[in-house]
Specification:
alpha/beta, Aspartate Aminotransferase, domain 1, 2 domains, four-stranded antiparallel β-sheet, globular, binds 4'-deoxy-4'-aminopyridoxal-5'-phosphate, carbon-sulfur lyase activity, Alliinase_N_sf, pyridoxal phosphate, transaminase activity
């Protein structure tokens, strides 16, 4: 059993009658692929390995394992989703730590007023939580970027594709001169979720293994940072917060990323050894099932996304978000509550700065849980139409 974000307890892997916990984006759907890889992904760590705090004293990011740095550059080269030339790589304990490091790096030494931080709604619910947590005098959460009008320095977090609603995004705050700083959180900018429309070329970009390979438990994220001074300040924060990042995790992440790249570079690769082919296929099947079951449901609806040309796949593809951003119809005001009625825990729209008639449900769960969710959507609808 584990605790959910809202403090309730639930079964980790649900049996057929229990409450379905789909409020977090735990990426367990990719487990079967990696289980089949078996020894290909095996790493051996001996007693005397990785004992030092340091990885590469010549690098700005002295705690980055060179093998991981190389693997990250190779991965972006293979996928074509981000420019790594003239960028510093800063590794973090998940991109969550890097986000905090960036808040620090972009706002120190600090002025009279805290720097405003905004993101266009619906925004990832962790942004306000992280920013408000320590009541910092350096920065302050100011909510939806669309309605932000204040003068002075600000940070806009651009999350593309967006968590929760799945679409590609651009910065929205206008007419702020050179006072604005942008953080591009590209956690989901991978071919299983979206078309790769160009190699992202922003000054500050965040990525994470959690949503790319599915290895959330390794807690490895990375930032691609153009400005050396910003990178240095991030490194200063990570030094204060955790004196670097686990070498064992970095070593494993480098191995996993290498296996992904090998699979992509092999022209004869299939869904069994090409991770993105596999994961895209799985996401396609899930979205088909979800759209099909909701076709017959007048209480819940979903966005439609345009097809876009994907440079990685070489053809026009569907958008397959990691989450279902569900909207209640027929005057139902609270989608989270509606979902609770079918024994499913989602995360309500309010936490994302949106109307409570929306809720987010993770589609990255294990196959059994996903199928149970589809069943519950179907049965819920049946119950209603039978007058229950
Ligand atoms: N950004 C976004 C948009 C996310 O959805 C997540 C994970 N849910 C993260 C960042 C953080 O990922 P992690 O700390 O696991 O790298």
């Amino acid at each position: 059993r584990l605790f959910l974000d809202n403090g309730t307890r639930t079964n980790h892997s649900s049996n057929s009658n229990s409450v379905l916990a789909l409020s977090t984006g735990d990426p367990t759907m990719f487990e079967p692929f990696w289980r089949k890889m078996e020894d290909k992904c095996k790493v051996v760590i001996r007693g005397g390995d990785f004992m030092s705090y340091f990885s590469d004293v010549k690098n700005v990011c002295w705690f980055l394992e060179p093998k991981l740095g190389d693997a990250i550059r190779r991965l972006h080269g293979v996928v074509g989703n981000a420019v790594t030339e003239e960028r510093h790589i800063v590794v973090g304990t998940g991109s969550s730590q890097l986000f905090q490091a960036l808040l620090y790096a972009l706002t120190t030494p600090g002025g009279a007023e805290p720097v405003s931080v905004v993101s266009s709604a619906p925004y990832y619910s962790q942004y306000p939580e992280v920013i408000d947590c320590l009541r910092s005098r350096l920065y302050k959460w100011e909510g939806d970027a669309h309605s932000f009008k204040k003068e002075g320095p600000y940070i806009e977090v651009v999350n593309s594709p967006n968590n929760p609603e799945g679409g590609l995004r651009e910065a929205v705050v206008k007419n702020q001169g050179d006072q604005g700083m942008l953080i591009h959180d590209l956690a989901y900018y991978w071919p299983q979720y979206t078309a790769i429309t160009s190699a992202a070329d922003y000054d500050i970009m965040l990525f994470t293994c959690s949503k790319c390979t599915g290895h959330a438990g390794s807690r490895i994220g990375w930032a691609l940072v153009k400005d050396k001074d910003i990178a240095k300040k991030m490194i200063q924060y990570i030094t204060i917060s955790s004196i670097g990042v686990s070498k064992e995790s970095q070593f494993r992440a480098a191995k996993i990323i290498g296996v992904i790249c090998d699979g992509c570079e092999n022209v004869q690769s299939t869904e069994t050894d090409n991770f993105f082919k596999y994961s895209r296929h799985l996401m396609t099947k899930r979205w088909q099932k979800l759209r099909e079951v909701l076709q017959h449901n007048r209480y819940l609806s979903l966005f439609k996304y345009p097809r876009q040309h994907c440079l990685f796949i070489g053809e026009s593809v569907e958008t397959l978000p990691a989450y279902a951003w569900l909207k209640c119809e027929e005057g139902i005001k609270d989608c989270e509550e509606f979902l609770r009625g079918i024994e499913t825990v989602g995360r309500g729209g309010k936490q994302f700065g949106a109307d409570p008639k929306f809720a987010r449900v993770s589609l990255l769960c294990r196959e059994d849980d996903f199928n149970r969710f589809i069943e519950r959507l179907y049965m819920g609808h049946q119950g209603e139409s039978n007058g229950h």
